[in-house]
Amino acid sequence: MNDLQNKTAYITGGTKGIGYAVAEELMKAGANAVITSRSQQAAEEAAEKLNAAGHAGKALGVEADVRNLDSQQAAVSAGVEAFGSVDFVIANAGVGHFAPIQELTPEQWQETIDINLTGVFYSVKASLEQLTKHEGYLITIASLAGTNFFPKGSAYNASKFGLVGFTQAVMMDLREQGVKVSTIMPGSVATFFNGHTPNPADDWKIQPEDIGQMVVDLLKMPARTLPSKVEVRPSRPPSK
Fold first, then answer.
1. From the CA atom positions of the chain, what is the Rg in Å?
2. CA torsion through residues 76, 89, 61, 108, sign
3. Would you list the domain boundaries of the chain?
4. Burial, 192: exposed, middle or buried (Cβ in 10 Å; 0-12, 13-18, 19+)?
5. Catalytic: 156?
6. Among 32, 56, 157, 234, which residue's CB has the most CB atoms within a 10 Å radius?
7. Quick one: CA torsion of 184, 190, 193, 194, rounded to 10 degrees?
8. Is 125 in contact with 69 (CB distance < 8 Å)?
9. Catalytic one of 10, 20, 137, 156
10. pLDDT in tens, 98-136
11. What residue stretches are annotated with the Ketoreductase domain (predicted)?
12. Each residue of 224-239: b (16+ CB within 10 Å) or e?
């Protein structure tokens, strides 16, 4: 799948941060991007900004909630109608609630699992027909928190440990059908995650466009080779 021209990516949570950067890097490489958000206005505004940059590929903004299978099926169908196919899925949407177990609420737990884990399951189910039809590529955005546990991380760790296991099992389910599956596990990324606003002090962190470039690189790998799990971390984090 070295040539990304006229291919289409379905990217959940694509209006900012990692999702937006992935869309931009794919569009630079010639692919189209269907970006989703729970807000139609946010999705359309992000798509307009991407299209205004004059990249080779085009963007379509679609309202979709990853927690709702019907919503995601409608978004995938919109991408097929606009561009003719969905060849790649980048399951990026995520949320983080961090608190000691004594303080973590059932609502915070449920939202974390629903978005970070069940939402990816729905992303796969919604796009499976397209992925298998076009021998596509599924990439999930997990986290180093998918192998490294930490205090106040019970909900987030559970969701990301689950996502890593889910992705690897799906890889084994789909590889005989020509579908490649990888999970990217970033460490600290300079994004808006968990209410953070990127700023100059984030220069040491992985930048969103670095993850975007990694997605492009994975898609351009020879068909015979599959980096199924990719851990990525800042090369020089601050000394503690």
1. 17
2. positive
3. 8-232
4. middle
5. yes
6. 32
7. 130
8. yes
9. 156
10. 999 999 999 999 999 999 999 999 999 999 999 999 999
11. 7-190
12. eeeeebbeeebeeeee
Distances (CA, A) of 93 to 5, 123, 142, 204: 25, 10, 10, 23
Q: Is 131 left (phi over 0), alpha (psi -120 to 50) or beta?
A: alpha
The residue count for the chain: 240
**Which token pair is 215?**
């997605």
Residue type at 120 in one-letter notation = V
pTM: 0.95
150-200 pLDDT per residue, tens: 999 999 999 999 999 999 999 999 999 999 999 999 998 987 776 777 788
| Per-residue b or e along 116-125, where b marks 16 or more CB atoms closer than 10 Å to that residue's CB | bbbbbbbbbe
The span from the CA of 161 to the CA of 146, in Å, is: 4
- CA-closest candidate to residue 150, choices 163, 141, 164, 161: 161
Residues with Cβ within 8 Å of residue 186, at least 6 apart in sequence: 18, 141, 143, 144, 206, 211, 232, 233
Please give the sequence-ordered ranges of beta strands (E in DSSP) within the chain, or none if there are none: 8-11, 32-37, 59-63, 88-91, 137-141, 180-186, 229-232
